[in-house]
Amino acid sequence: MSANLVMLLTIGALTACGVYLVLERVVSKMLLGIILLGNAVNLLILTVGGGPDGNPPVLSGSDTSPDGMADPLAQAMVLTAIVITMGLAAFVLALAYRAYRLTTTEDVRNDPEDTQVAARRESEDPAE
């Protein structure tokens, strides 16, 4: 089994862009990052799944040798991951819409209560 270098570089680029976008403070960029990470994982599953490119998972006819077949488990996992990514994207879109309706901005700000808890934790004596 040989690895496709172009596919691995594409997976790496999608993962890097996805992580960068998820770390942004704007909800739409976070959503795009989640989608890019989902696509990178799908490509990784198909690449690691092995098998020749473009072949169906089940061959018809009298040739039933597993040499020319692709792995059906990898394809089933990718189909499941696509549905999960789509559901997650719809959920994040709903959260973004609700946050925009409440705050009229898409930027995620620091929560003042979290800042107070962090300041209180730093002021406590570590010996106690």
Summarize the structure.
The protein is an all-alpha fold. The protein has helices spanning 5-22, 27-48, 72-103, 112-123.
Instruction: Count every helix, treating DSSP H or I runs of 4 or more residues as helices.
Output: 4
Major beta-sheet overview: none
Q: Return the average pLDDT rounded to an integer.
A: 84
Tell me the structural class.
mainly alpha
Proportion of helical residues: 55-70%
What do we call the CATH topology? Helix Hairpins
Beta-strand content bin: under 5%
Give the termini distance in whole angstroms.
58 Å
Protein name: Multisubunit sodium/proton antiporter MrpC subunit
Keywords: Cell membrane, Membrane, Transmembrane, Transmembrane helix
Subcellular location: Cell membrane
Family: Belongs to the CPA3 antiporters (TC 2.A.63) subunit C family.
